[in-house]
Design goal:
By secondary structure, the chain is mostly helical. It has 2 domains: 48 residues, no CATH class; 67 residues, AhpD-like, CATH 1.20.1290. The chain has 8 helices and no strands. Helix 5 crosses helix 7 and helix 6 crosses helix 8. The longest helix has 17 residues. The radius of gyration is 17 Å and the shape is globular.
């Protein structure tokens, strides 16, 4: 078993610029409570370094890179998650559409694309999950 005590990525007491940007972007889209839950607990616990990695690279580097708007990036993400059957993450991102400007029509259009390019079962699952989340609003 390797020792990560000297690994700043695993134990870093300070947030990097990318981590800070990632936390801000993640909170903007998913909500501050979501980010707080992700970073709650012991920073040395198993998986804590993965939250840091995920937030730095997915949210800081990719979501924070510009080019696509949050709305466009969210539609791409929703299509990929639906196509791959990543239900829990799909539901979370459907909830977050309220903060990125993705309309119900946009979501429906994305799921129609999923049906053609990834299969009807994936789209049906996406419609079922999205419908349940939207009904909560």
């Amino acid at each position: 078993m390797s020792d990560h005590t000297n690994d700043p990525a695993a134990t870093g007491p300070q947030d990097s610029e990318m981590l800070t940007r990632g936390k801000q972007k993640r909170a903007q889209l998913m909500g501050q409570e979501f980010v707080d839950r992700a970073f709650a607990g012991d920073p040395q616990a198993f998986g804590a370094d993965f939250q840091r990695f995920l937030t730095e690279y997915a949210w800081g580097a990719v979501w924070g890179r510009g080019g696509l708007s949050d709305r466009e990036r969210h539609m791409v993400t929703l299509g990929i998650l639906a196509a791959l059957g990543r239900d829990r993450e799909f539901e979370g991102h459907v909830r977050a559409t309220a903060s990125s400007g993705v309309s119900e029509r946009d979501l429906s259009d994305v799921l129609h694309q999923v049906a053609i390019y990834a299969g009807v079962p994936a789209a049906l699952s996406g419609f079922r999950l999205a419908g349940a989340v939207l009904a909560e609003r």
